[in-house]
């Protein structure tokens, strides 16, 4: 690992200034992905700004929602009483991610900033437009069984790995950031980017911008929720594909509101708004769910090794909705 | 990054800033870019130069330590190589196997994926800190009783995770134990014995 300069500021503005002024600087919080990337030489920041001394770890109720501090640990959020009562989908998604040890280190802000797990991104001997723009994409013609079926470009077909982010995009979360030009809010759906010609940019954060919190608005999705994660072993593996489903069902089994998002299918957590709209007003039955799944998968395109996702996707959606409805 | 060293802050008259900058300016002729930019950045926080060691206070297995470490030293490497606590194992070194699991302020973490300097002021417990003198911790006894180890390499991490699993209240059923122990990989496949050991400790109701 290359040497780096280390600082641990106690003031938010000092942290922002330190990173904004230096393109080779990076924030570090839990480190569960960044340390990994530094060890492998995928990234080599010359300066690390440790933000763990900033007071950004609170989870609190405010303005008709929950405000979850960027430094709240994944385990703390998943176990938090308010989160479990008001946003059980978020707790389910968090607990589906990583291992207990990692969830004790990983932060909410860091989780949404984690990089793709595409093997070509991690292997510094292979081409990768995300790691080194202009070198090509190893996955396009390579082993692409984990890769995207929506929203990809010929520059990058990697997927975003976070489970938490799939729940947050479904729940209309808003990311609060603070930067050299002040504070702003970014709707979660606009936080991550599609690869286009600049796959090296995962998010719409500007240089030096620090995530301070995530706001999750209160909603009716307190009961009928499910996070369906399909992976190659029962636990502790990244998703081949995942589905976050949340339903509001009235006394006569009619769907009043629905939220649906997928992970492991695109460069960003993939919200399925057309399918959501289709579900509203319909009875919560397997037939309805099958129709929604068909709508959701429209436009999906596979590569040589991930064609299974075209069949796995709708089945996982139906399963997620059925389990949510039965909850 | 700029390579030209500029005067860091001629108008700042605080003693702390003066000392910091004069040290940096003296060192500038000898040192690479990061240190120069550290001075330029005029950080109001303590800055560690790449050539310097960062002071670090830790309590490890009940013992208070004042240390000095290079920022890129992981907690795992600090424990093994500087403190000679070799019980904590380096398996994959990438947070995938759990062999390096230790407790930080009572919470289990992978010590390979965090820099030691990030734990300043924290309390670390390793496998060496679990037993009470010659008296084994109940989980260690249960691992012996149920043969929860084969080659033994994953065992320290498994035991640290197992203790946390019970403390967290996630040892309610075999399924829950398996889920909450999934961050610890055993290549010999001693899983069923490990689960039995954890269930034994849970049922025993002893304080872990």
Automatic annotation (TrEMBL), chain A:
Residues 1-221 form the FAD-binding PCMH-type domain. GO terms for molecular function: FAD binding; oxidoreductase activity. The keyword Metal-binding does not apply. InterPro entries: CO_DH_flav_C, CO_DH_flav_C_dom_sf, Diverse_Substr_Oxidored, FAD-bd_PCMH, FAD-bd_PCMH-like_sf, FAD-bd_PCMH_sub1, FAD-bd_PCMH_sub2, Mopterin_DH_FAD-bd. Keywords: FAD, Flavoprotein. Gene3D superfamilies: 3.30.465.10, CO dehydrogenase flavoprotein, C-terminal domain, Uridine Diphospho-n-acetylenolpyruvylglucosamine Reductase, domain 2. This is Xanthine dehydrogenase family protein subunit M. It comes from Hymenobacter sediminicola.
TrEMBL record, chain B:
InterPro entries: 2Fe-2S-bd, 2Fe-2S-bd_dom_sf, 2Fe-2S_ferredoxin-like_sf, 2Fe-2S_ferredoxin-type, 2Fe2S_fd_BS, Aldehyde_Oxdr_Iron-Sulfur, Beta-grasp_dom_sf, TAT_signal. The keyword Metal-binding applies. CDD domains: fer2. One of its GO terms (molecular function) is 2 iron, 2 sulfur cluster binding. Pfam families: Fer2 (PF00111), Fer2_2 (PF01799). Keywords: 2Fe-2S, Iron, Iron-sulfur, Metal-binding, Oxidoreductase. Residues 54-130 form the 2Fe-2S ferredoxin-type domain. This is 2Fe-2S iron-sulfur cluster binding domain-containing protein. It comes from Hymenobacter sediminicola.
